[in-house]
């Protein structure tokens, strides 16, 4: 909930002692950002999170530094943590980068007849069981589906590079589905088509599906900050 001073009032966290405090704080704030409870452009204060999580401010600071490194927030002196906004350019750049990496993975899998991981089909079945309006678990499974495909190549450096896109990938996916809820059904169809093409070793079809799947949607991009900047009249 946005307060009058521009900061966000966090929901009360459920108690848990299974993980270290800094990890629990990190996961809690990250989920709140992804779900949109901490909106882009708003501030989060250490004291608020400390109170909600019932921990000292030290693990909150540690979690904030990790979230800043993953580009969820910017830490501003004497102001707190500013939640970063997903911009139109960031979405376009992310999709371009993913097309390069995943397009290469598709080509290698089909050309070299690399076995398609069974886990990809399992993940899609799990996604089908999620209600259309529950985007948070869906974006995590979506990330795993694509990461599993890239991981099938056995190239650890490439997998690490792709993994580094994870936080941006999740924020962009949450933003896109929140702006365009109908995208959920299209994603489901495209995932199945991509998996079918990979299993058949049909590189041309797999590439075509991937290009469609990772094409920035104008209706989504146009509603993000920064859209149209730098373009001619």
Report on the structure:
27% of the residues are buried. The model has no long low-confidence stretch (mean pLDDT 88). The chain has helices spanning 21-34, 46-53, 57-69, 88-111, 118-128, 135-151, 156-163, 166-179, 183-200, 203-213, 218-221, and strands at residues 43-44, 73-76, 80-83. The protein is mainly alpha-helical and 233 residues long. The longest helix is centred in the middle third of the chain and has 24 residues, at 88-111. The protein is built from eleven helices and three strands. The two termini are 38 Å apart. Helix 6 crosses helix 8. It folds into two domains: 21-83, Winged helix-like DNA-binding domain superfamily/Winged helix DNA-binding domain (Arc Repressor Mutant, subunit A), CATH 1.10.10; 88-221, Four Helix Bundle (Hemerythrin (Met), subunit A).
Can you summarize this structure?
One of its GO terms (molecular function) is DNA binding. Residues 19-86 form the HTH gntR-type domain. The chain has 233 residues and is mainly α.
How many strands, which pairing sense, and closed or not: the largest β-sheet? 3 strands, antiparallel
What order do the SSEs take from the amino end to the carboxyl end, as H and E?
Answer: HEHHEEHHHHHHHH
Structure summary, number of beta strands: 3
The CATH architecture of the largest domain would be Up-down Bundle
Radius of gyration over all CA atoms, rounded: 19 Å
CATH homologous superfamily (4th level) name of the largest domain: GntR ligand-binding domain-like
Helix count, DSSP H or I runs of 4 or more residues: 11
Shape: globular
Q: How many independent structural domains?
A: 2
Query: What does the average pLDDT come to?
Result: 88
CATH third-tier fold name of the largest domain: Four Helix Bundle (Hemerythrin (Met), subunit A)
CATH class of the largest domain: Mainly Alpha
What portion of residues is helical? 55-70%
Structural class: mainly alpha
Strand content: under 5%
User: Termini distance?
Assistant: 38 Å
Low-confidence stretches are: none
In what order do the strands lie side by side in the largest sheet? 1-3-2
């Amino acid at each position: 909930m946005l307060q009058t001073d521009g900061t966000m009032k966090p929901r009360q966290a459920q108690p848990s002692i299974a993980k270290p405090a800094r990890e629990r704080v990190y996961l809690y704030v990250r989920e709140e950002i992804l779900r949109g409870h901490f909106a882009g452009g708003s501030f989060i204060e250490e004291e608020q999170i400390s109170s909600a999580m019932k921990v000292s401010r030290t693990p909150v600071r540690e979690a904030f530094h990790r979230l800043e490194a993953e580009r969820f927030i910017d830490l501003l002196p004497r102001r707190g943590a500013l939640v970063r906004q997903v911009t139109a350019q960031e979405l376009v750049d992310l999709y371009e980068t993913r097309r390069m990496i995943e397009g290469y993975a598709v080509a290698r899998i089909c050309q070299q007849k690399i076995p398609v991981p069974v886990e990809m089909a399992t993940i899609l079945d799990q996604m089908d069981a999620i209600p259309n309006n529950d985007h948070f678990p869906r974006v995590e499974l979506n990330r795993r589906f694509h990461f599993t495909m890239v991981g099938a190549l056995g190239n650890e450096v490439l997998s690490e590079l792709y993994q580094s896109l994870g936080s941006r990938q999740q924020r962009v996916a949450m933003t896109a589905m929140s702006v365009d809820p109908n995208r959920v059904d299209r994603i489901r169809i495209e995932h199945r088509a991509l998996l079918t093409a990979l299993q058949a070793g049909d590189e041309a079809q797999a590439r075509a599906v991937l290009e469609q799947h990772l094409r920035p949607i104008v209706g989504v991009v146009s509603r993000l900050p920064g859209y149209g900047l730098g373009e001619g009249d």
